[in-house]
Structure formats: C-alpha cells, structure tokens
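Dear Dr. H.,

I hope your travels went smoothly. While you were away I took the liberty of generating a structure for the chain from your last submission, since the lab meeting agenda had it listed for discussion. I wanted you to have the full record in hand beforehand rather than looking at slides cold. The sequence, exactly as received, is reproduced here:
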Amino acid sequence: MCRWWSFHLGHFLCICSYPAGIDDSNGAELKAIGKALELLFYSSSIFHGVFSIILEPNSRVALSWIHNLDAAPWHLPQTINSVCSKLSILPNISFCHVLREENAIADSLSKQGLNRSEDFVAFF
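The corresponding predicted structure, in token form, is as follows:
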C-alpha cells in the first residue's frame, strides 16, 4: 500500500508515494506523516530559511493520534514516537486536513503505490 504527502512552501510543492505494506488507511497515513517529516529532517539544508511548512494529510484520525498520544493504537508506538520526535525538532510545521475527495493527485499516487516497490518523491 502507498500513501501520499504534500507540503507547501509558498509556491513549492512536494509529493511522495511509498510502499507502506499492509495497514489500515489511518495507520498508513500516520506512516506517511512520518515519511514526510523524515524527508524534511534529512533535507533541512534545502528548507533552510523557510518560515512555515504545511503538511496536508487526509486522515483526521491520524492527526488526532499526533495530538493525543493516548488515543493512538497500541501497535504504532514506534511510528508515533518518531513523528513526535521530529515535530519537536523541526520548527514551524503545521497540519491542514484535506479531504481525500478534494485531492485526486494524492489519491491516484496512493493507488499506484499498491504496485510500487520503491519510494517516489517529486518536487514542483
């Protein structure tokens, strides 16, 4: 399974798609948040001087897990801890929920990821 991610930096956009294995949509979305933060974390020199980054997940449930760790499923502690750790290090990250129906590109990338064996990242 694959999930997508996008973040806006003014006019900058990045989309990611990766094989996420077998998981429900909320767990896959949480892993996608982790992948996006990992990309930002390891590419910090590219984003130096950027004032804000907006991540746009389509799962309100995954977002609620980040804001309320006690609500997160027991089988995802490593993913939750990784996300929270990176959020504490990376400044000015915010989230904006986007309905899946409103983002056809992300939905398409997610479906393509069912056959994906490697990560896909594109910058615009």
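Two observations you may find useful: Helices lie at 25-42, 60-67, 77-89, 104-112. The beta strands are 2-9, 12-19, 53-55, 93-95, 120-123.

With kind regards,
E. W.
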